[in-house]
Each structure stands twice: as structure tokens, then as C-alpha cells.
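sorry for the late reply, my laptop died twice this morning and i had to redo everyting from scratch. anyway the thing you sent over, i finally got around to it. pasting the sequence first so we're on the same page, its 158 residues, then the predicted structure underneath. double check i copied it right bc i was rushing
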Amino acid sequence: MSIEIITLSEEIKVIGLSYHKLGLPETYESIEGMWKTYSEKYRSRIENTVIPLTDYAVNANLLTDTHEYIAGCAVTEIGVLEENWASFLIPTGKYIKHTSRVTSELHSTDIGAWAKANGVVINRDFMVEVYPDGVFASDSFNYVLHPILRSCIQLRQW
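ok and here's the structure:
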């Protein structure tokens, strides 16, 4: 497991199935089923995919009543969206990158405590799980990106 601060110098465009548009109940089973449907029926229909294929789970609007979860992949251009699809633009900027080969470590680590200890304020509006190689499996995802709202630099007065 590792935690580091990285900078995205280019935005990432994501298209995929929308949890909100599908009207799914907020359960792990719903998300698991959504990924299965995306992998089996929709991934191959998405145009302009970035190669090598990278899948993204975008958790957006986390501070609102209209929480959105998108199971999708990176594209070069966002074209016409099919029914039940959504798009999300992952903006450039600084992110906390939390890497692990064990799913439970990614979800059990207190990123908020790490951020506070390192003088970082997290933007809690969204977070992104990244699945390089285009393979989604609960035991194989590699990292989570938490956007940084700002870094708090401590200035010493002499």
C-alpha cells in the first residue's frame, strides 16, 4: 500500500453507465451488477476509448442528494450518450493517489487522517477508483484518486 500526491496534467473524460439514471438502490450488490452489465454489454459499444483501456468508477456529487456513480472508461472525446449513460470530466490538478493490491486496504485506510497529517484538504465532491488494463474485479483494482482542494503550507515565523 502507498499514498502519494500526484498531479494530473491532462483532464480525463469518462463515459459509462450511470447509477443515478438506472435508478438502482444504494447497495454493493447493485454496483457489482452494474459493473457486470457494463463489462458484458456496454464497454465494447463506447466509442473513442483511450488505449490501453482503463476503467473508472466515478463517485460524484458526494455532498448532495443526487449522488452519482459511473462505471465507465476513458475516452478521447465525449460523443452522444446512450440511455442510462453519463459522462464525467476528471479535472487537472493535484490528487492523493492511494495504491493497494488489496481492496479492503483501499476502503479501510483513513485518507482524511492522512490528508490532515500532511496539511492537505480533500475536495469531497468526488473521488475516482482507477482500474488500469480495463479489468474490473473486486480484488484487483489498483488505486483511488482523491482530489485536493488545497495544500496548507505552514509558514514559520522567525
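The chain has a mean pLDDT of 85.
thats about all i looked at so far, will dig more tmrw
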